[in-house]
Amino acid sequence: MLYDVIVVGSGISGLFAALYAQRAGCSVVVITKSNPFRSNSAVASGGINAVLNTTAQDSIYRHIKDTIDGADGLSNEVNVNDMCKEGANIIAELTEMGVKFDCDDKGNIKQRPFGGASANRTCYIADKTGSAIVQSLLMQCRKEGVEILSNHQLLNITKFDDKLSGITLLHREDSHVTAFACKSLILAGGGFAGIYRGHSTNPQESSGDVIAAALRAGLKLSNLEFVQFHPTTLKNGALVSEAARGEGAYIVDEKGVRFTDELQTRDKLARAILEHILAGHKVYLDFRHLSAETIETKLPSTQKMALNSAGIDIKTELLEIAPSAHYTIGGIWTRGDTSTDLPGVFACGECATTGVHGANRLGGNSLLEGAYFGRMAGIEAARRAKKEDFLPIDFSQVNKEYRRVNLILDGESHFNINAMRKNLGESLFKNVGVYRNEPRLIDAYEYVHYLMKCQYGLHCVNKERHNNVELSAILEFRNALYIAEAMILSAMKREESRGVHYRTDFPNRNDKSYGVSSYIRNLGDGFLKISFENDTLNNFFYKVKSYFKKTLFGK
């Protein structure tokens, strides 16, 4: 199959990218591993940040300042400025597509408070904002002719003469390996918090597939050590949206004591809750003082989830909580225009590092980031596709993937994939969780390498090729181990505490040595290089070069 632009991922960033590439006149396909509704965007419940009106209570400047302050000294301030300024336009565009934000009696969009924000600027649809946005975007994509292919799992990026030529895919329905050619590729496949299985709000299929494929293809990654732990989740990892605290729920212990500020940034709140738990307390969300109307109209999904997952009626009972891995801030390094260091490949959403979150993400900013940079990725990918030709697919690469899949299917399994995934999650949560230190990181690193040796003994017990979930799980697990190794190495190298990365052996922030982003490069033969660099000068020269190309040559 030939497409001008291929988009991998069906969250808010991928769908925005597909729409804008399609509107530019390109042939576009969205590739998604499972059902297009199963993205992290679809479960982002709380809302999307935007300054709709400049008032004494709020302004774009304050949104920018809150975002930079929350990023703990590591944000790309240019990107933060550009994103925050577009907030109102993105809300207006979503409204035009049919997203029905909650409004007051006068028709004005309601906005709730979120952690780290100095004003109420989070627009919402009850506590199901992400799913409502994704549903409208999917309908708009179908309306405008974007092709959407579900059950296609990205395997690798293909190159010809070190240039992008396309991607290899596993068609999960029949376990067939295929290749699609493209002129531009947009990676929008989400993060990797699902590798913390048993301690994650993400599904286990959030295993960093696109990030691992990018690293194998020679793209550099950045800031993988920054994994955000959501402070309020159930013991099974089910997410209790920040909307709960935004609407006034308290955090209390078994004695009913409110021991922390519910609306501080997520990194500080997660540490406060875990520290209280480690001191022997239990921690709960308390909704009992909220009116039944508030719970039923603004927190219906939370009420239903608590009853179904924990058997708790939040109107009358306390809901026990603990932190879980929720959002991965690091990912594929990108410039301000979403381009990567492989021409023709763009990245946006949770799998990308745009610099707007720095070392800690504010709740409500991820959907805004996805929309803003997804839109930009679509525009830039279409611009490039219009001036490039298709390059041939090297079918030796496709054949290599075909043999790999057949080997996993045909061999005799010596291990249980579900047990290995769970054990990896337990090790990562214990050793690379809210708190880290060198001995724990070494333990995690050694365990990941032990699992890497075992992974070649993983084969499908069920040899059926039709919808073989075991095959897909094994491929995901291999990606998870690769990303886990890179994450742990990055965490080892950053010998300081900053944002969501907290080292008990280096509890202070060290701007002199680590006031810049970390970078991970694949040197080949299983070797990864970690470095800390300031990319400001390189980005400046890239912008100058791009400007002259567009103005002088129309490219």
Which features would summarize this protein structure in a list?
single chain, 555 residues, alpha/beta, FAD/NAD(P)-binding domain, Flavocytochrome C3, Chain A, domain 1, 7-stranded mixed β-sheet, 5-stranded mixed β-sheet, 20 strands
Structural summary, described in words:
- By secondary structure, the protein is α/β, with parallel strands linked by helices.
- Helix content is 39%, strand content 18%.
- The chain contains 17 helices and 20 strands.
- Strands 1, 2, 6, 7, 8, 9 and 17 form a 7-stranded mixed β-sheet that branches. A 5-stranded mixed β-sheet has the order 18-16-10-19-20.
- The radius of gyration is 22 Å and the shape is globular.
- The two termini are 26 Å apart.
* Total number of beta strands: 20
> What is the overall silhouette?
globular
Do you know the CATH architecture of the largest domain? Answer: 3-Layer(bba) Sandwich
Tell me the CATH superfamily of the largest domain: FAD/NAD(P)-binding domain
- Could you say which structural class the secondary elements and strand pairing correspond to? alpha/beta
State Rg.
Answer: 22 Å
Count of domain modules = 3
Mean pLDDT, all residues: 94
> For the terminal residues, how far apart are their CA atoms?
26 Å
Q: How many separate helices?
A: 17
CATH class of the largest domain: Alpha Beta
Helix share, percent: 25-40%
Task: Estimate the strand proportion.
Answer: 15-25%
Query: What's the CATH topology label of the largest domain?
Result: FAD/NAD(P)-binding domain
Give the biggest beta sheet: 7 strands, mixed
Uncertain stretches of 5 or more adjacent residues = none
